[in-house]
């Protein structure tokens, strides 16, 4: 069935130990249940037929699992765990090879060490070990499959030549343990006589259901594991579900014909793969050979040296163990390499299935430790892209440290809490708290007596001095003379999920600390489920959430500007509506209001009052105007193509006392964005005709206005995010 159905032409499928363990449990259960009074032939017949039914029904389940595409779950196994399993297959092949060489039972480390306590057993193992090393050398040195096949056939030929040269007979070789003793094989008729349905105790079949369920899961898992191991060793993607169906149909046929459960034999499949025998002829040869062995009147093993088959197993053993226990050291991290070794040791100490589970558990712990150490929160210097006046921008630049922006990413879970707490507290700064007598912690008593310094100069009284800053956790700040934090922006745009433990042990504590120091915390771009976790745990209110990072930063900047001294003229929209453009431009430049720099400019600008929703220009239009916003806000947006319909993406918000449209105007490029009033606005408009007229009539004024606009353009370009906005050229007027 493997030869017919498998996508791997060189694949080999045989009876496998994973299912035989459960079948042996069923056989023991049946014999114990029937008791000593039942004839042996009835016990044997009942056992054989029950095991055949169990195997066939197992195959049906595997086919169904393949059709439901459940086999791919095995591909989620970590590579170090699969590597540990492959290394175990290697040492298992070594056990089998030594057992074939000596005729002893070798199935663990202890029994393998017992082999080396007897000098004759060691001598029997030497040809097998040397033969395996020889085959490994040939396979790595030569690419031709014929050379490796020839090397395999040379070994028995050399053995028999040595026997002839030394005058050693077959009986002498058997007595020395080099060849198995002669035995008479069972005949076909004797095998068929075992299937006597009249002797079957059918009541024993349903009693094995529990064991059969366990066998289904273990065989399905081990089969997927074999497929994953073959895929990993080949480096070629395999269809897990197709291969699982191949295993299933093979078990169906095997069970119906009285056979037992099996799967891909990794060692034999990889052996044929590495021998470059990429043909289904391999499977045909195996079928013919096994039929010949069954039909042969003599035992084949009685005429073939033991080390011949042992050498092929030891070849695979050495290859797998070197590749996965040694060479993988340079292919994976140290922790992953440790997981591989621990999986290998666990499988050898306990059992295959439990050892694999232990390996998966260790891999999960390793992943958690690695994930905890990843930087999931970082403070980044960032400001909004809102268009502001030079004065506002200078003010925000001076107080940039007052807004702490934190970018979070990944899955925030209980293991992330310590990192979040530590990094945020180290990056949020507060004023040191004075004691009851107005001193800072650490100040000496009376150091401010008389308020005199070293040069007898009067000092500022203690109660009027600004306290130095410290970190939120009380540790010293990098710059004690810096500004305290007033706003904290938590950017959740890259956070995929968060559990309640991280919410309470990190963000609840941070929220309380910030509230105690009057720091406003806003959350940007949080998913609905993350938002619900923060709300349900009373960490933040609805007003603390903003849809995007841009809106959150703009909100904090607006609040910061609103808290500054009113003499700077920030956001005096109600007063500005009736003021002249000359006065507004003087404020825009930071010039005195009575400056004569822009005298006479009022006649070249036109004042307009527009309602919310008014569109000043669209993307793609000719840039014949630019504007100065007096009151209200204007949104600049671009059109983003999507699979359904074009969508507008907001890129900037223009605030009062700012210009917009001037970059395209001076670069003479088509508009890159659309400008729309988001509320009733008062604006001053400059047209190209008026601008050209000003150059002709008042060149000095035109030069001053151009300097003002260039300064605004510099701010726009600095804050721009798109290359289209940056790649402009200012033509000489």
UniProtKB/TrEMBL annotation:
The chain crosses the membrane at residues 47-70, 82-106, 118-138, 145-168, 209-230, 281-301, 307-327, 356-374. GO terms for cellular component: membrane. Its main location: membrane. The keyword Transmembrane helix applies. PROSITE patterns: CNMP_BINDING_3 (PS50042), STAS (PS50801). Residues 401-556 form the STAS domain. Keywords: Membrane, Transmembrane, Transmembrane helix. Pfam families: cNMP_binding (PF00027), STAS (PF01740), Sulfate_transp (PF00916). CDD domains: CAP_ED. It is found in: Membrane. SMART domains: cNMP. Residues 588-694 form the Cyclic nucleotide-binding domain. It is a multi-pass membrane protein. PANTHER family: SLC26A_SULP TRANSPORTER DOMAIN-CONTAINING PROTEIN (PTHR43310:SF2), SULFATE TRANSPORTER YBAR-RELATED (PTHR43310). This is Sulfate Permease (SulP) Family. It comes from Phytophthora boehmeriae.
């Amino acid at each position: 069935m493997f030869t017919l159905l498998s996508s791997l032409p060189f694949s080999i499928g045989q009876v496998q130990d994973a299912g035989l363990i459960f079948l042996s449990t069923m056989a023991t259960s049946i014999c114990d249940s029937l008791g000593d009074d039942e004839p042996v032939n009835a016990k044997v017949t009942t056992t054989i037929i029950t095991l055949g039914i169990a195997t066939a029904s197992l195959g049906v389940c595997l086919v169904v699992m393949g059709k439901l595409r459940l086999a791919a779950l095995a591909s989620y196994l970590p590579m170090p765990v699969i590597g540990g399993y492959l290394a175990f297959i290697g040492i298992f092949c070594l056990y089998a090879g030594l057992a074939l060489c000596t005729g002893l039972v070798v199935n663990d480390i202890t029994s393998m060490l017992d082999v080396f306590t007897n000098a004759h057993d060691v001598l029997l193992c030497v040809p097998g070990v040397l033969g395996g090393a020889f085959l490994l050398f040939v396979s790595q040195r030569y690419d031709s499959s014929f050379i490796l096949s020839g090397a395999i056939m040379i070994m028995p030929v050399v053995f028999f030549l040595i026997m002839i040269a030394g005058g050693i007979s077959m009986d002498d070789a058997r007595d020395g343990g080099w060849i198995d003793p002669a035995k008479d094989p069972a005949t076909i008729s004797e095998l068929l006589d075992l299937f006597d349905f009249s002797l079957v105790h059918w009541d024993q079949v349903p009693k094995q259901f529990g064991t059969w369920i366990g066998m289904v899961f273990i065989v399905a898992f081990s089969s997927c594991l074999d497929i994953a191991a073959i895929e990993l060793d080949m480096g070629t993607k395999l269809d897990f579900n197709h291969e699982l169906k191949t295993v299933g149909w093979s078990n169906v046929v095997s069970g119906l014909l009285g056979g037992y459960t099996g799967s891909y034999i990794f060692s034999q499949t990889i052996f044929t793969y590495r021998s470059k025998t990429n043909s289904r002829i391999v499977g045909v040869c195996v079928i013919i050979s096994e039929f010949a062995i069954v039909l042969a009147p003599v035992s084949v093993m009685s005429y073939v040296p033991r080390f011949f088959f042992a050498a092929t197993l030891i070849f695979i053993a050495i290859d797998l163990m070197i590749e996965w226990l040694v060479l993988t050291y340079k292919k994976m991290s140290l922790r992953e390499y440790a997981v591989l070794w621990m999986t290998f040791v666990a499988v050898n100490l306990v059992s295959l299935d439990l050892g694999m589970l232990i390996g998966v558990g260790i891999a999960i712990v390793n992943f958690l430790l690695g994930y905890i150490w990843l930087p999931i929160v970082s403070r980044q210097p960032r400001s909004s892209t809102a268009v502001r006046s030079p004065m506002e921008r200078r003010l925000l630049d001076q107080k940039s440290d007052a807004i702490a922006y934190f970018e979070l990413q990944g899955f925030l879970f209980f293991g992330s809490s310590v990192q979040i707490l530590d990094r945020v507290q180290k990056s949020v700064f507060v004023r040191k708290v004075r004691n009851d007598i107005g001193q800072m912690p650490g100040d000496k008593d009376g150091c401010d007596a008389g308020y005199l310094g070293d040069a007898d100069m009067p000092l500022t009284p203690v109660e009027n001095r600004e306290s130095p800053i410290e970190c939120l956790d009380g540790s010293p700040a990098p710059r004690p003379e810096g500004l305290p934090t007033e706003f904290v922006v938590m950017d959740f745009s890259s956070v995929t999920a968060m559990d309640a433990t991280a919410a309470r042990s990190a963000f609840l504590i941070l929220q309380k600390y910030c509230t105690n120091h009057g720091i406003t915390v806003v959350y940007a771009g949080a998913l609905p489920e993350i938002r619900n976790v923060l709300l349900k745990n009373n960490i933040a209110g609805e007003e603390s959430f903003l849809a995007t990072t841009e809106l959150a930063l703009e909100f904090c900047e607006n609040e910061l500007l609103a808290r500054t001294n009113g003499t700077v003229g920030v956001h005096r929209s109600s007063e500005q509506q009736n003021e002249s453009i000359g006065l507004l431009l003087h404020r825009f430049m930071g010039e005195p209001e009575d400056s004569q720099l822009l005298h006479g400019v009022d006649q070249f600008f036109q004042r307009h009052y527009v309602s919310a929703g008014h569109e000043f220009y669209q993307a793609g239009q000719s840039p014949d105007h630019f504007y100065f916003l007096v009151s209200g806000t204007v949104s600049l947006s671009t059109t983003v193509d999507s699979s359904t319909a074009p969508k507008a993406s907001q890129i900037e918000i223009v605030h009062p006392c700012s210009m917009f449209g001037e970059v395209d105007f001076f670069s003479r490029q088509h508009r890159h964005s659309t400008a729309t009033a988001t509320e009733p606005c008062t604006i001053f408009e400059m047209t190209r005709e008026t601008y050209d007229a000003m150059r002709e009539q008042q060149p000095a004024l035109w030069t001053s206005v151009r300097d003002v606009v260039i300064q605004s353009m510099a701010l726009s370009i600095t804050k721009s995010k798109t290359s289209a906005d940056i790649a402009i050229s200012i033509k000489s007027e």
